[in-house]
Amino acid sequence: MEVIQLEKIKYHMLLLNSLLVFPSANARFYFLSLETCAVNNGGCDRTCKDTSTGVHCSCPLGFTLQFDGKTCKDIDECQASNGGCDHFCRNTIGSFDCSCKKGYKLLTDEKSCQDIDECTFERTCDHICINHPGTFECTCNKGYTLYGFTHCGDVNECSINNGGCQHTCVNTLGDYECHCDAGHKLHWNKKDCVETCNLSCARKRTEKRLRKAIRTLRKVINKEQFHIRLSGVNHDVARKSVRVLETQEICGLGQRHVGNKCVSCSVGTYYDGEQESCILCPNGTYQDNEGQITCEPCPNPQNPGNQKTAGAHSISECGGQCSPGEYSVDGFKPCLACPLGTYQPEPGRTSCFTCGGGLMTKLTGATVFQNCETKVQCSPGHFYNTTTHRCIRCSVGTYQPEFGQNYCISCPGNTTTDYDGSTNVTHCKDRHCGGELGEFTGYIESPNYPGNYPANTECTWSINPPPKRRILIVVPEIFLPIEDECGDYLVMRKSSSSNSVTTYETCQTYERPIAFTSRSKKLWVQFKSNEGNSAKGFQVPYVTYDEDYQELIEDIVRDGRLYASENHQEILKDKKLIKALFDVLAHPQNYFKYTAQESREMFPRSFIRLLRSKVSRFLRPYK
Ligand SMILES: [Ca+2]
Ligand SMILES: [Ca+2]
Ligand SMILES: [Ca+2]
């Protein structure tokens, strides 16, 4: 019975197969009446199911059944509430992809976008990093200027109107100092120079010596070692009965006890022996040193401007200083306006700068050089030469952003400009580049990155990996101006010889990342730029891996799926993820540092699937 039934089915199959192999109008008509999933999938696009009422077509997830009841059409998920994507939604056949704006990363729910905290990366800013939604900002410590977006270079204050120094200006890292010619010393405003010894200074010097003598006297009293010789008899004088506990250390001058420790009185205070504590400097005095037993009198204590200066840390807090455009003998009120032909931009000065070259000012009390009546007005990128009365282009390595100045500002740190006549600090570029590389991981970057690279530059790196290791390189993105016929290029090959095995060569901009292994064991890398059309350049990380992994690494980097989705591309651009990936590639044992949970949170699921299949295929022969 069963056998007969089977034979029957076989017969039907044969019949149907022959109909399929030789389809004709007749044949089609013939089996329309007996529709079944066994024939032509019942006419269904995808899934077919035989039911008592005939065939029933259905579609997989991501598709919808059309009115004909057979065809499956892709659902455009992006039409309904943006597919649930935070930022961008891109429809695909059978599915959809979310992606994020620049500066955001897609979370592992593959829908939400989160700001990238660039400040958690290494080397983001030279000094201070401030994270913002979708971006970040670098700032520099005092005395430094930002260049190339993320770098900080020392300001050469001396290039700005001689640092305001009356005599010599000496630039230092993060600061500067004014120095005075022989026979002069620096005024308290640290810029003006005063003659070392006229009558008033001699008096001051005596006062100072006296103060010192009093200090010494008080010191010996404090130490209770005061001897007096009266009528040829020695007397030991004790100030008070011994109160200092044996266990307590005897504090130095200007210090007080805090617990069992001695602490110097801070600036703006002095040590008072009577009260045995640090007291705020009274009105009309200041103290700019720690551990003192007196406060210095303000230069002009009878001045009404000095009323509220209790605890003053410096002489400038004494108040009553001359305003910009004014001067006086000591820099304090009463002040005189800078006479015609002079100007003074700073407060508390003892003199004014002359315009030079016989130039006049319209009014007295001028505060800036621009008040001097120059013969021509100089545009940014130039300075006014008071000898020739002409505008001179700022020389290479200097810039001037303002109109009508009499100086150009030196570029910060070790940067310089490509050309003369620069108008902005962004024209200052670091030219440093190249070198020998050979660690397990590292990077090469164009000079001044991420600022524009300098013109006419040539950098050469050589990567020489440790024994039995090979080089893997990721170019996350590279910006070279396309419009100038390969004037700027990056090349990686075996040696400096132009016909040696080449691994990579480009003179264009690619925002899509690419990963590749070096075709030679060592790598010689060169970047060259010509005179015009600069761009951001590149920062290219590399890692060296054990040559036993060659097959696996090649398998991964050659798989187009690695670069296909925008989210995978983001991995190769994500400095943190690249670091984690490279860390494991360089030292495979570090894989165990990352828990499954961690890697799930770090990488998109599709990326893990891609890697896992390759790794298991690679490992299988050894199992
Ligand atoms: Ca879709
Ligand atoms: Ca950010
Ligand atoms: Ca400096």
TrEMBL record:
GO cellular component: cell surface; extracellular space
UniProt xrefs under SUPFAM superfamilies: EGF/Laminin (SSF57196), Growth factor receptor domain (SSF57184), Spermadhesin, CUB domain (SSF49854)
EGF-like domain boundaries: 74-114, 115-153, 154-194
Compartments where located: Secreted
Cysteines joined through disulfide linkages: 119-129
Record organism: Podarcis muralis (Wall lizard)
A molecular function GO annotation: calcium ion binding
Residues of the CUB domain: 433-545
InterPro entries the UniProt entry points to: CUB_dom, EGF, EGF-like_Ca-bd_dom, EGF-type_Asp/Asn_hydroxyl_site, EGF_Ca-bd_CS, Growth_fac_rcpt_cys_sf, NOTCH1_EGF-like, SCUB_EGF-like_domain
Keyword Signal in record: yes
Stored Gene3D superfamilies: Laminin (2.10.25.10), Spermadhesin, CUB domain (2.60.120.290), Tumor Necrosis Factor Receptor, subunit A, domain 2 (2.10.50.10)
Keywords: Calcium, Disulfide bond, EGF-like domain, Glycoprotein, Repeat, Secreted, Signal
GO biological process: signal transduction
Name the UniProt record assigns to this protein: Signal peptide, CUB domain and EGF like domain containing 2
